[in-house]
Design a protein that fits this description.
The chain has 315 residues and is an alpha+beta fold. It is built from 11 helices and 12 strands. α6 packs parallel to α10 and α8 packs across α10.
């Protein structure tokens, strides 16, 4: 079996992280509290003095991403007015003998990720308006304007359909081989045929977050308050972001979404649906690997929202 996509290849211990912060940011001394609060696919995350989040790349592929992210987040803060909070790096860690890579820090965005926030269906539905408003503003930074601001293409495209199909098949095989859940392979093959028929419109390129899903949506007091982890952001196809509407919300609110956001090209909308499934399968595998039952549950629920025939006996 191949190593998981999210397997770390950079050593970062609590001692290394603390030493880097203490040596480079004297204004944070004394460090009264220092906690490793988790890690994602690309970064290990620390909370310092209950105020500042520091992210350290844990994969080599993420080293360049964090510097691109710093540049892009600064542009977004300058060009989008929204009640939603996003990270705004104010501490820029430099490579050193302790840790030979860049890292960054920003003021904490209070709340919990959607998969750990114990949301009701009403909480979820109440977040649609504010998330849609944010997507409208973000996607108004079209390709031409984004390039003029120095924003580059997404580091990892999800619109290479042959590669998406290949990866999709590999992920399903891993689920089946490990008997995590029971996939209806006939239904899955029908989904693959749908992907092959899609023709994406290059006019739907804009700045995208690139990885909006439950773990990156922050809820505070049951209200959507922020979007984190912008490492995959850049110029990309809007379908990449629109997949969250399929995965996080029931189908009966899609019409309301269109009323707010505007009409979406049919192939773009259907590809967003496919990317919702594609991401959910990866998130489920990740959830099983890190033993996060809440993440697994949210990914299964999300798959059922998109195609309730794909998983046999999901409960």
């Amino acid at each position: 079996m191949n190593a998981p996509e999210w397997q770390a290849d950079i050593i970062i211990t609590d001692e290394i992280a603390r030493t880097c912060i203490e040596n480079q940011f004297k204004n944070l001394l004394p460090i009264i509290s220092f906690n490793n609060i988790g890690e994602g696919w690309d970064n290990k995350v620390y909370l310092v003095n209950q105020q500042i989040i520091f992210r350290f790349p844990r994969r080599k592929i993420a080293i360049d991403l964090i510097e691109k992210e710093n540049h892009l987040l600064n542009i977004i803060h300058s060009n989008i007015q929204t009640p939603l909070k996003i990270p705004y790096p104010i501490y820029f860690g430099k490579p050193s003998e302790n840790y030979p890579h860049p890292f960054h820090g920003y003021e904490i965005i209070h709340g919990k990720s959607a998969c750990h926030a114990n949301l009701t269906e009403r909480d979820r539905l109440n977040s649609l308006n504010v998330l849609t408003d944010y997507l409208i503003n973000l996607h108004q930074l079209n390709k031409q304007k984004a390039e003029s601001l120095g924003i580059r293409s997404q580091p990892f495209t999800r619109t290479n359909i042959p590669k998406v199909i290949e990866s999709f098949e590999q992920r399903i095989k891993e689920i089946v081989d490990n008997q995590f859940i029971h996939i209806d392979l006939k239904i899955f093959n029908q989904e693959l045929k749908l992907i092959e028929q899609i023709k994406l419109n290059d006019n739907d390129l804009s700045v995208v977050h690139g990885d909006i899903y439950c773990r990156h949506l922050i809820f505070d007091n049951n209200q959507l308050s922020g979007i984190i982890d912008w490492g995959d952001a850049g110029i990309g196809h809007k379908s990449v972001d629109l997949s969250v509407i399929w995965s996080f919300y029931p189908k009966n609110v899609h019409k309301h979404f269109f009323d707010l956001y505007g009409q979406v090209d049919e192939d773009t909308w259907q590809y967003a649906r496919i990317l919702g499934l594609y991401s959910d399968i990866a998130i489920m595998l990740y959830g099983f690997d890190i033993n996060d039952k809440f993440l697994v549950k949210e990914s299964v629920d999300s798959i059922v929202r998109i195609n309730n025939n794909l998983i046999l006996n999901p409960r």
